[in-house]
């Protein structure tokens, strides 16, 4: 395999150079429920030296109960990225085609290529929505997997639930719907997996639940797909401690509702303030903002880095013809620091050169 053709996921974010004002990774600005800290103080030695439950049985049960699913339809792993890689491995054979929107979470592209798949990019609409009609037009007899991100990353745009379900029902091709940010916007289709055997829904504890450091994700799918995932997964995918805190976070519905209200407020604030500064901001319904810039996005992001600010350079998404950066709203004081840094940059750019 020619690995030079596979983009590096690690280049997306500020790995190794965490800056003081960080709006790159879309963690929950409120952190996690305070109940997690209480639980961590009650850990015993057995939580550390005993091997974890390989099936995450307790967590699977509460997930299944919440969404009215069988436990056989739920799979838990160390982050949803791990599940993406596993699914591409079990679904794709060399030269099989995978249809992915041209502007979306890059891990789909990377995992598909690592599994030997041929990535076919579908176009976005003029409003940066995922175009289901264009995806449908690109289906061939070699298409084995279609991947949708809802809400989409980096745009924060949402596909209506009815459209997703109609699309899934129109084909027998396996369709992944990544709902990593669904708690912030959109309607889930997770309850439909048992009636739609070609539907796989991904979820994570890294975003709204605020547990990115514990690496826990899960998916819901037909029992047949779940069994294949179990057979190809590592034997102990999630630590005992990670399962315990995920259980606690999952049950605190009030904290998730509070987090959504907070994100709605700060997303609207940043959208309004950036628009005042003549930036075009894509209309997001989630926890990411795509901000279009004039000129090179890499140059602009470099200037932000020099101001001590981390955002995601849009060039990492390899979407031709659009210069942008992705920002994830934070606490108001952090959002204000971002705006101040942007003001400093634009003031410098608009100032006439000094005469010597």
Please describe what this structure looks like.
The longest helix has 24 residues, at 253-276. The model has no long low-confidence stretch (mean pLDDT 92). The chain contains twelve helices and 13 strands. The chain is 37% helix and 15% strand. The protein has helices at residues 34-41, 46-49, 57-67, 80-91, 107-114, 132-137, 161-169, 223-232, 240-251, 253-276, 297-306, 332-350, and strands at 21-22, 74-77, 97-101, 118-122, 143-149, 174-178, 199-204, 217-220, 280-281, 289-292, 309-310, 312-313, 324-327. By secondary structure, it is of the alpha/beta class. It is globular, with a radius of gyration of 21 Å. The protein has a seven-stranded mixed β-sheet, sandwiched between helices. It has two domains: 9-29 and 254-346, Aspartate Aminotransferase, domain 1 (Alpha-Beta Complex), CATH 3.90.1150.10; 34-252, Aspartate Aminotransferase, domain 2.
Kindly list the characteristics that best describe this protein.
4-stranded antiparallel β-sheet; Aspartate Aminotransferase, domain 2; Aspartate Aminotransferase, domain 1; 15% strand; 7-stranded mixed β-sheet; 356 residues
Helix content: 25-40%
Strand order of the largest sheet: 2-8-7-6-5-3-4
Rounded Rg: 21 Å
For the record, the CATH class of the largest domain is Alpha Beta
- Total domain modules: 2
The CATH homologous superfamily name of the largest domain equals Type I PLP-dependent aspartate aminotransferase-like (Major domain)
Total beta strand runs: 13
């Amino acid at each position: 395999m020619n690995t030079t053709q596979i983009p590096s996921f690690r280049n997306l974010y500020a790995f190794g150079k965490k800056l003081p004002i960080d709006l790159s990774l879309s963690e929950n600005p409120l952190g996690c429920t305070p109940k997690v800290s209480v639980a961590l103080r009650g850990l015993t030695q057995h939580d550390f030296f005993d091997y974890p439950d390989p099936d995450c049985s307790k967590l699977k049960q509460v997930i299944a109960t919440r969404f009215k699913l069988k436990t056989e339809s739920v799979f838990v792993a160390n982050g949803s990225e791990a599940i993406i890689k596993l699914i591409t491995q079990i679904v794709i054979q060399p030269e099989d085609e995978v249809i992915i929107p041209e502007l979306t979470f890059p891990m789909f592209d990377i995992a598909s290529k690592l599994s030997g798949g041929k990535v076919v990019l579908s176009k976005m609409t003029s409003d940066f929505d995922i175009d289901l009609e264009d995806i449908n037009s690109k289906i061939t007899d070699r298409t084995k997997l279609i991947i949708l991100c809802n809400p989409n990353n980096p745009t924060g745009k949402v596909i209506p639930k009815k459209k997703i379900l109609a699309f899934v029902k129109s084909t027998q091709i396996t369709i992944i719907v990544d709902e990593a940010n669904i708690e912030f916007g959109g309607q889930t289709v997770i309850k439909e997996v048992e009636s739609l055997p070609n539907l796989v829904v991904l979820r994570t504890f890294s975003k709204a639940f605020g547990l990115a450091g514990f690496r826990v994700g899960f998916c819901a799918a037909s029992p047949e797909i779940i069994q294949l995932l179990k057979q190809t997964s590592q034997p102990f995918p999630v630590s005992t401690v990670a399962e315990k805190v995920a259980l606690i976070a999952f049950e605190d519905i009030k904290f998730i509702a509070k987090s959504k209200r907070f994100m709605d407020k700060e997303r609207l604030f940043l959208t309004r303030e950036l628009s005042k500064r003549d930036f075009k901001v894509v209309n997001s319904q989630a926890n990411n903002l795509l901000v279009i810039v004039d000129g090179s996005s890499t140059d602009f992001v470099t200037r932000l880095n020099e101001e001590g600010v981390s955002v995601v350079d849009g060039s990492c998404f390899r979407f031709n013809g659009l210069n942008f950066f992705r920002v994830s709203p934070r606490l108001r004081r952090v959002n204000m620091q971002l705006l101040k840094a942007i003001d400093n940059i634009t003031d410098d750019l608009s100032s006439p050169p000094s005469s010597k």
